Amino acid sequence: MRLAYTTAATTAVAALVFLVPLGWGLRNDHREAALADAAARTSTVAGALATGAGERGVAAAITLAGGTPVVHTPGLAPSTGGRADGALIDRAATAPEPTVEDVDGGVVHLRPVTVGDRTVVVEAFVPASALNRNTARDWWLLLGLAVVLVGGAVVVVDRLARGAVDSARNLVDAALAVGDGDLGVRISPSGPRELAEAGYAFNRMADRLVTSRTDERELVADLSHRLRTPLTALRLDAEALDPDDTQIIDLTADEVDRRRGIRRIRQAITTLEDEVNHLINTTRQAVADRVAAAPEDGLCDASEVVRERMMFWSALAGDQERQYRVVGAHLRIPVPVARAELAAALDAVLGNVFRYTPQGTAFEVGLSRRDGWVALRVDDAGPGIPDPQGALRRGQSNQGSTGLGLDIARRVAQATGGSLSLDRAAMGGASVVMLLADADATPKQPSRFGLVGRGRPARDRDPGRRRWQRGRE
């Protein structure tokens, strides 16, 4: 609106600067035309007088001139019908050129003419209405033209500026939304080149913010599991220093202090593990809320994720003298899961192996694909899981954990339409199988690979699970 006012004022000033002189010039043109007509009339009569025409000739000339010219003789009373007084007539008779004098109701054009030995003055009266003929019409036309120019300028500027104003308003609204925490807002760049570039820059900035926040949350989520790995090793080393059931009997003071110090270390490790568990729960809940609010499609190579994560876990496996094997991770196997989510799920399952099996226990990570499904399997040679159903219920694990690791893996599998199942591994311990949809194929009979039910042993209840087992064996 302010831009429209400014445009209207600027155009109005420009119109006045241009149109007022034009109107004044048109007025002068009309006046000059009326005086020229009067000069022509007096010239016609003056010509008849100068050629010595008689009274009839002069009368004919006056009639030809419209009947309005009047012939005056200086020194005598003004002729009837004239508007000039004696003084004007005497002054005009001595003037070398025709003169124009103002009188009541208009002007008179006085032309001196020498006839023989005397001088006469021919008068032609021009009324004020003739002088200003069409002047009012011209001013109204010019005023209308000024209004049209101002209105047209406002309309054109409004059309041209509307895109820029809308683009700027959208950019401001989007910036306010981002400031309020809505990082999903984007704009369609439009308007002048500068505003369009600002729109592209805004979208790029918002994408960077989303990426930075996502990376930060994923880093914290991954950090929790990375913290668990050295904590597990530290707890196992502390347990190896002194069995829990050793009684402090008949020991020296130094031995008693040493064992009390070991127990304090265990208590500190337990407290630290509780804090890490709380960090895991808090971080994963934030990530889950974000995914629920704005789910994102993802695609990654399961083999590449397995190889990458095993490079991390292999160092700890070497420290704990664990034999391990990776099977089927040499070919590209795309799955519809975000890379970070699949890595977190695999870390959660492998973390359980290192946490709940004795040092030196072997394990195996395998990948296989069949009938539109991909099986990511983690087997170990440990004591197994006495209650698989209880372990699958989040927060109800009977091994003293948070139960969050298996829940992370299950949610990742279910996000692709698959499932998570627990069974007895061929190595003798637990076998955790994540069934993921194959991104290169259409899954067949997904219901066969669902979670195990009740009534019969897990091995008998899940024919799909048996197929994967037979394929491994």
From TrEMBL:
PROSITE patterns: HAMP, HIS_KIN. The chain crosses the membrane at residues 139-161. It is found in: Cell membrane. It is a multi-pass membrane protein. Residues 162-214 form the HAMP domain. One of its GO terms (molecular function) is kinase activity. Its main location: membrane. Residues 443-473 are annotated as: Disordered. Residues 457-473 have a biased composition (Basic and acidic residues). Its EC number is 2.7.13.3. It is an enzyme of class 2 (transferase). SUPFAM superfamilies: ATPase domain of HSP90 chaperone/DNA topoisomerase II/histidine kinase (SSF55874), Homodimeric domain of signal transducing histidine kinase (SSF47384). CDD domains: HAMP, HisKA. Its cofactor is Mg(2+); Mn(2+). InterPro entries: 2C_sensor_his_kinase, HAMP_dom, HATPase_C_sf, HATPase_dom, His_kinase_dom, HisK_dim/P_dom, HisK_dim/P_sf, Sig_transdc_His_kin-like_C. Gene3D superfamilies: 1.10.287.130, Histidine kinase-like ATPase, C-terminal domain (3.30.565.10). This is Signal transduction histidine-protein kinase/phosphatase MprB.
